[in-house]
Amino acid sequence: MGSFWVLVARLLGVTTLSAYEGLDRSQSPLQLTDSHSHVETSLVSTAAKDPLHFRPPGHRQDKGDGFDFKCDYRKMVGWEKCSTPEDRSCWLVNKKTGERFDINTDYENYYPTGTTREYFITVDKSNITADGYTFYGATVFNETYPGPWIQACWGDTVKVHVRNLNPDRGTSIHWHGIRQLNTMHMDGVNGITQCPIAPGSTFTYEWKVMQYGSSWYHSHYSEQYGDGAVGPITLHGPSSAPYDEAADIPLLMTDWRHGSLFPVGNMLEERWIQSILLNGIGNVTKFGARKVQNTSKIPKPYTLTFTADKVYEDEPPELEVPNSRPKRYLLRLINTSIGSTFIFSIDNHLLSIVSADFVPIYPYLNSSILVGIGQRYNVIVEANPRNNTKQPLDSNENYWIRTWVAPNCGAGVVINKDSKETYMQTGILRYNKSSTEDPESKPWTDISMACSDETATSLRPVLPWVVEDPINVMSTESKIQHMAVISGPPADPIPSFPQASYSFRNVSGGINGPNPLQINFSDPVFLNLDNDEPFKNKLWEIYPEGRPNQTDWVWLAITVDYSPDGDTSAHPIHLHGHDFAILQQAEKTTYVPENIHLNLINPPRRDVVLMPKSGFIIIAFKADNPGAWLLHCHIASHASQGLALQILERQADAAARWPKASPAAQTAATLCSSWDSWVAASYTSTPTPLPDDSGI
Which helix (H) or strand (E) segment is 157 a member of? Predict the structure, then answer.
């Protein structure tokens, strides 16, 4: 029955889906709907002269690969773009009023008026050969891996129509790091914000672009994103440092399997054949305890091309020796792994880091950067390789791009013993695009392999926060709610599930044992906002209603309780619907009062933080987004095994905003009806709405 509805959906899709263009490297931008396309066509002759309809900074018209995309602010009469290669901090300016949208704008409350970007995505199975060994039946978007590049500009509205053509499983799509202010039902977490999209069904997501920077989208249906259901997001906006060009499409780093993670706990051999990919390209023969024999040709490494051309600050140059500098390139780094933390570097080239997740920061230089699962960094690289005795210049001007696996920092891939010195060579930076030689360059000698986030003092947000006292004061002795990561299955009478083995323990709430989270696919929280019953006996944190004209803060400490067999993982902790401030991130330190030293004045902030395996983190977020939000470890197997909790925020506001009769709730109920019908038709035994893992 499920396959029948998928077939119907495929036939309908022939006539209802807009066309989209395929691109090199299996990554493609999606076309706008026809209603938008005719507007684009009618204005081609004037677009070049229109200061409010422009290519994002650094997008070259001749580059292709989605670089023909344009920002559209034609509704903002009197405004014009103000970004230049020497000053990317300015975005839009109204010269008559002096108003600006720039790097200092409070983007949580103010943003430009853009346009609507409408995209279509299909979820389906496909055979993907990324590294010389085929993954048969991968679950991907639009038959490509990575999925299509979704672009929007600061202030736009994004609408994405998702059609599930996978005959075997449901799906839901999470837009990682997106604020979703007052749009909890668009967060894309089945069992919390919606029921899964059943095979043959379609659901439309719509969200506002309040932030800018780099991110990704992925399935949140159990471990489905580990089967390939991921793609990049770029939200164009200002930058804290200048650059000339965007070097390429976003750079997605991932660990890769060659067999489905379904059913959860699948032990088939292909699942354990591993590799590392950079933008969907890798070499399977470098991984595994025993060398894996490739079954098809190993692809050439992913390649970036820089030019050594100088940029002249006097144009045309009037001086005999004009003032010039190297060209500066913007790179967008994203870790989409299921278990690996990466350290990114380019031989002989320094990185100027300008944003952490969606938060612009003051630039700082480093030879490498650690990127945890779900984390993103925008970096700027000069086309000016550094020459020194330990790192001489490559004679052919080719340099390795390296993605090292941080040791003992998650459930990383196994590296073949013969490839320990070369496995991280996943890409090539060339200054001569016709060159075919492998680089002879050497890695930086000062790269740290420590399983640690970037230094807190380096991650200084441009837009500051001053963190106030929390509303979740648990006692007179402590302002901080304490949650501990604990491994092991729960004891009776706490409900369990087959894969349950990780959870958060509410230390402040007096809960002593494990309590892994499991959601109910058929009964999402979004349809129960006026009812406390579903929240009982589950791992929930419910915070009071917001106070008028005040900012309510929540402080949360997370530590690790080790099991007897030893938990060796650092945990990348992700919070939906919010950025959070990192008040303290302590390694090799016990969580006791005398070791608490909080930074409340413009601390680092982001939406994913790496919790050290022997220490603690203390985070703070604003309780200003009504609805239910997920906090979880982004190691896919840990989330699958229950390492998550839900935060119910401003419940009365949320219930009033989305009553059962509201259009959003009615749409969600219809989606649930489709899901329940598919379950009933697809399972001959007693159907169950529960997954065999946590469901997230």
Answer: strand 157-164
CA distance 190 to 8: 24
Compute the Cα dihedral for 396, 401, 405, 406 and give only its sign.
positive
CB 177 within 8 A of CB 211: yes
607, 561, 559, 601: which is closest to 583 by C-alpha? 601
Q: Which of 49-58, 438-447, 504-513 has the highest mean pLDDT?
A: 438-447
Alpha-carbon distance values, 407 to 414, 488, 665 (Å): 10, 23, 45
356 three-class SS: strand
- Strand order in 342-346's β-sheet? 302-305, 425-430, 398-405, 342-346, 369-371
List all residues 6 or more positions away from 243 whose beta carbon is below 8 Å from its beta carbon.
Answer: 57, 58, 85, 88, 328, 329, 330, 380
- In three-state secondary structure terms, 521 is coil
Q: Which residues, in sequence order, are CB contacts of 549 under 8 Å at separation 6+?
A: none
Q: Could you tell me if 234 and 150 are in contact, meaning their C-beta atoms sit under 8 angstroms apart?
A: yes
User: Using one digit for the tens of pLDDT, what is the confidence trace for 612-634?
Assistant: 878 899 999 999 999 999 999 99
Q: Per DSSP, what are the bridge partners of residue 355?
A: 360, 378
Residues 6+ apart with CB under 8 A from 592: none
Element (H, E) at 333: strand 328-335
pLDDT confidence of 408, banded at 50, 70, 90? confident
SS3 (DSSP) at 484: strand
Token pair 């989209």 in the structure block, residue: 20
Q: Are strands 157-164 and 116-129 parallel, antiparallel or unpaired?
A: parallel
Highest mean pLDDT among 264-273, 311-320, 552-561, 669-678: 669-678
Residue in this structure with the two tokens 């022939």, named with its chain if needed? 14
Q: What are phi and psi of 288, to 5 degrees?
A: 100, 145
Nearest CA among 68, 81, 75 for reference residue 32: 68
Determine what percent of the chain falls in helix, strand and coil, rounding each to the nearest 5.
15, 35, 55
- 375 is written with which tokens? 């984390």
Which residue's structure tokens are 């014009």?
80
pLDDT of residue 536: 55
**What tokens were used for 351?**
């990185």
The Cα 479–Cα 122 span in angstroms is: 46
550 Cβ contact list (under 8 Å, min separation 6): none
DSSP state of 182: T
- In the three-class reduction of DSSP (H, G, I as helix; E, B as strand; rest coil), residue 526 is classed as helix
Reported as type and span, the H/E element at residue 38 is helix 34-42
State pLDDT tens for residues 202-211.
999 999 999 9
- Residue 516 has φ and ψ, to the nearest 5°, of -60, 140
Which residue did the predictor score with more confidence, 689 or 557?
557
Query: Pick from 244, 249, 256: which is nearest to 292 by CA?
Result: 256
Q: Determine contact, residues 447/343, Cβ cutoff 8 Å.
A: yes
